[in-house]
Amino acid sequence: MMSNIPKIKVGIVAVSRDCFPEPLSVNRRKALADAYAKKYSAEDIYECPVCIVESEIHMVQALEDIKKAGCNALCVYLGNFGPEISETLLAKHFDGPVMFTAAAEESQNDLVGGRGDAYCGMLNASYNLKLRNVKAYIPEYPVGTAEECADMIHDFLPIARALVGLAGLKVISFGPRPLNFLACNAPIKPLFDLGVEIEENSELDLFEAFHKHDGDERIPEKVKEMEAELGAGNRKPEILPKLAQYELTLLDWIQEHKGYRPYVTVAGKCWPAFQTQFGFVPCYVNSRLTGMGIPVSCEVDIYGALSEYIGACVSQDAVTLLDINNSVPADMYHEAIEGKFPYTQKDTFMGFHCGNTCSRKLTACSMNYQFIMARNLPEEVTQGTLEGDIIPGDITFYRLQSTADTKLRAYVAQGEILPVATKSFGGIGVFAIPEMGRFYRHVLIEGNFPHHGAVAFGHYGKTLYEVFKYIGVPVENIGYNHPAGDRYPGENPFH
Asked: Which of 10, 134, 227, 254 is deepest in the core (most CB within 10 A)?
């Protein structure tokens, strides 16, 4: 149930330069729509039949038609060379993410009357987009057959989901941030530049709302949901009514405060006063909301919540936020990893958080108390974590962040969670990312990124990279794990 994620419908609008045969664009558009419907789903697309855009008047007609059809993303399709002004205005005036793609020539037997020159037209399209400061996604190789262009549109869907989601997102935070967590502090100005709204609240506001839910008649039913999810892992049944009350508090707050925004994510407070005043920790509730498609970050990490939401849109799945936490001990590496997997010890690390990872992403789970907090507090007020090893498989580790001077930066690295027992506590996994040691030093440390990283379950690096480019992160500010032999700018060549 990911109701907090946009549904995308791409309007396919074919364009044509008036000195080229219009049927080229008409027939190629039809072939493209047919190819997409055959390979994927016709529900994802809308083939604009009103006109082939050759002029500004056609551009207006096409925009009206795809808006009426409910399209929230646009594919400008160059069936031939294309009208560089009208097609660029089409992208400029469309309210949503836009991609450009172009038709390849079909046959050596039809290169006179049937030659479209869209390969050339794409160059002019890109030049005019830059002239008008219009953003658009252009695939790595944007010229193809109907089937190849259908694949390009399908690749565009998760990018469009993230962009539409960001345009309609509100971040609800409950702060301030804990002492000594300046790393999670970042200016909110870039949020507004992205079109994201933010509502910052005090944890006192949350505390008051929580107590207004004392005795809420929905609590018993919510407890049953939690019991069914936890099963044999329900080791702290006495805390479930409070956790159910807290979940209802957050869900009601979201509904009452989302305003005109269709999508919401939450940056929550979880310590140091939360445990003593609420009487529990919120980790398990955070994990449940994240499983619903409403990511909740810990420690009022606003950009962590934002990053999680982008990943949820891209993957259409639960994500998580973890500390890039601790090294893998040498004896564990030699016993469980060396010779079994193609990684050095420096390629591995443990990703951990107290218990905010969705139960679907754990090999097994149990309700527990927060071990670290219980060193300084009574154990009974630290209950509410969801503990377990995170499921092995492909992952993407990534983050979008603002610098102190409000510049956006990001990183993306693909890897995997290994099927290795962590022998530790919390929601935790043994991660392996190729060349992680160098990435850790020359991207994470040198780039001054905080310790929280978002995790998407699958390889989504290509899509996330394009999302970050589209929203305006300079490519030199998007870090990734360079392969061996590909030196980072600040890497010492003499080591």
From this structure: 10
